[in-house]
Amino acid sequence: MKRLALPLLALLLTGCEVGPNYRRPQFELTGQFRAQAQAEAASFADQPWWEVFGDPVLKTLIGQALASNFDARVAAQRVEEYRARAGIERSVYYPEIDVGAGYTRGRYSDYAADGGVTGNIINAQAALSWEIDLWGRLRRLNEASLAQYLATQETQRGVFLATAAQVAQAYFELRNLDARLEIAQEATQAFQGTYDLFNRRLQGGAASALETSRAEAAQATAAASVPDLERQIQAQENLLCFLVGRGPGAIPRGAALNAQPLPPRIPAGLPSALLERRPDLREAEQELVAANAQVGVAQANYFPTLSLTGLLGGEAPQMSELFGRGKEWTIGPVLNLAPFQGPRLKYQKAAAVAQWEQARTRYEAAVTGAMGEVATGLAAYQKLEGVENQQARSVAAYQEAVKLATMRYTAGLSSYMEVLEAQQQLYPAENSLSQARLSRLVTLVQLYKALGGGWNLKDPGAWTAGPVKSAEPPAPAVRLQGNPPG
Fold this sequence. Notes:
Layout: H1 2-14, H2 49-52, H3 56-68, H4 70-90, E1 96-107, E2 118-132, H5 137-203, H6 209-243, H7 274-277, H8 279-300, E3 305-316, E4 327-336, H9 344-410, H10 416-450
Antiparallel strand pairs: 1-2, 2-3, 3-4
């Protein structure tokens, strides 16, 4: 009998685990991304953000944002919440013990047995309840809770990646506005010189009012864009300040837009590796794991539960007799057979299966969308290089046209209208070239994000690491006063 006791006890404690075990859905993934020159294991996403972006000021801003950005802070707090929730679910493995005590003083009716006497009653008890996980219901609950906790960790990594991308894109847009402001200021000065020349010639009777009016209109158009660009620059600086978690203020500048480094090619890695790199895909898979475990919970509800219960206490008129003549105790197993609930359990399981199907579809959609984002980004990065090169040719040609028109005018071979016309074509072309460089930089940022950049930084704290130093003391962020409850 003793030989059977230990194996029986082990069986009761471990039990079995009903419900489906999780298996990752199989996807038909090609050997390489569309628009990828050749398949290769190395990926652009293997690099940490401080190696991807070469501007030291941008590195500083990203580091500050990862430490102080509001979304990043909320994501970290959410991880702590679900860490605690997972701990709550793990606690079901342990016995529950309720301890209570009471004191009453009273008098029973004279007509009751032993009535007519005033006295004290002191009681104390400790109740124990421990569910034996025969069918794995508790283990499935714990599995689901752990998956939800891991999903929040992936959410946090996704927020870090999105924050780094937002800061980089906003900084590049700021440098584009700076470049456009410089172009507008140069155009204003050039058109002002043209207008002054025509106005002097008009006063001397050597120029027409039409030429002077066209020169004045060109100067006014260029001058009007300057304050508007300055307005946009201040708004963009305030946006960057918000992203780094501080109040509105000036943003330091690093390299000019056309001096920002761009890698000649982007190694995308293998499509199958994207499932391990992108935080949103890893999050979607953990949600699928949790839904799978909930199916097991619903299936385990069909079976009876076995609990070990116990009671230790006492009741007496005096404290000295509480655990003497007044003590009482009980201990024993309780088998709770699954009560008849009509089709309720059936529908509960059907609902859990439907939720699993939804999670699976969301995961499949996320994977499919991720593949498309990478393919689109690779194609855009390749094509935009050609756009920028052709736009650079256009700017060079217009610059040469302005130079030649000026030489022809100086030699008396043409009117200054040729110079004005060439200038009016040059400055929009320079703006288009600046926009082309911005598009390439933004595509680089989005491609790094689409590939799940920084995936190998397992510790979320590593996202804020890197060889960066603050370019200027950060302005104080807005902070609410007070301590958390508890």
